[in-house]
């Protein structure tokens, strides 16, 4: 019997039927009250007298005696002169509880309760055979109550886990060692549209492929996955972006007895990301519009001033010549500004063959040879990757590196050193070519580093603030990244460009390695 209340009721009924006693009270340990308290027992023989104590303190004489002596106690023990000094107070308390005999209940040397049994209705005393039988019942009851207590703890734990799983927004699916589904929470049902019952005997093979494949890989190959993306086809045909993680379920000895996958719907997060990107684009557009208006306003003011004076000073030859020069010069500035603005909106990537990054870098350094010699700037090439191939138009790469190298030259002044590094790094599912352009200039502050790629942001007295914006446009268009890093030791700044290595470039790398 695993239900405690049913067990206690059965024990009371058994004692009444066997001995026809006046009273049976069961006191169980209650740590919250620091006392042994009676339980309401559903039995036709249960005794609900209100005059007897319902609680016995931990440090009471009776509890102390039972806990230390670990034996039964009879009211007749008080008549034994030798025992009286040790048990008289306990016997008095037993008498106050209306009992004739009491049996302790233990669990791992801890007193968990006791059974108080009243006198027989027949008036007969308790014989040794009666006491042996009662003691056997008490011992069996202690074992049964321990099992009932453990079972109740398991039930509570299961209910707690079920409550967590039922309220989770993430889907949770577990399989056993042979791949049969053993756990399927409501969120998993909502996301997959599958209905799971223990009688259905479904396996991971019945799951959608985006979930079945990683779950099988973890169960069979032992490889766990963490925070990977997948796309699940919803019941309405809409694609549901997911992020999932898998883990092995193991025993204490390390044996795998199943696998688990936890997956979450990223639809709302993706929508928030799109809204954030739209907001950022609108903010950038606003900054761009303000910058364009400011940059165009300056030459227009000069043209307007000359135009207003032209009727009065038309006969002045020098004025007309100056007017002609200013108008042409300022219109050229506007035209140059428009051309550079077009460069910000990088064209969509075109299908081009693999390009070795070393070639546009070397070509750009050759183009800047005059400026390098004039400023006495040294260039250090650290091309660590043997085959840095990307599929980006060479003209856009030259535009990218021209802006970066010119910025480095202008930042250092004279006698500076530019270091160009090329190396490779790997992240899950993607290889990257990393190009670093480091200078030995004065460096930049955190505030400048945070805004250096914004349109029209510049620290130069005569700069337009579009060079690095164009660089970011090129890298963004090709799924790359660009960032500025301050040197932790010594002056200078490093611009880091990460460019993805497409599959075609990987093939070229492999062919190059085979030829070598």
Write the layout of secondary structure elements.
Blueprint lengths: L3 H16 L4 E7 L4 E4 L16 E3 L3 H9 L3 E2 L9 H13 L4 E7 L2 E8 L10 H40 L3 E6 L4 E4 L1 H7 L16 H13 L6 E6 L5 E12 L5 E10 L1 H43 L7 H28 L10 E2 L1 H10 L1 H6 L3 E6 L5 E2 L3 H19 L4 E11 L2 E9 L7 H6 L15 H11 L3 E6 L6 E8 L2 H13 L1
Parallel strand pairs: 13-15
Antiparallel strand pairs: 1-2, 1-6, 2-3, 4-5, 5-6, 7-8, 7-11, 9-10, 10-11, 12-14, 15-16, 16-18, 17-18
Describe the structure.
The chain has 516 residues and is α+β, with helices and mostly antiparallel strands. The protein has four domains: 4-160, Beta-Lactamase, CATH 3.30.450.40; 169-265, PAS domain (Beta-Lactamase), CATH 3.30.450.20; 270-344, Orthogonal Bundle (Helix Hairpins), CATH 1.10.287; 355-515, Heat Shock Protein 90 (2-Layer Sandwich). It has 14 helices and 18 strands. A hairpin with a 4-residue loop joins strand 1 (24-30) and strand 2. The longest helix is centred in the middle third of the chain and has 43 residues, at 267-309.
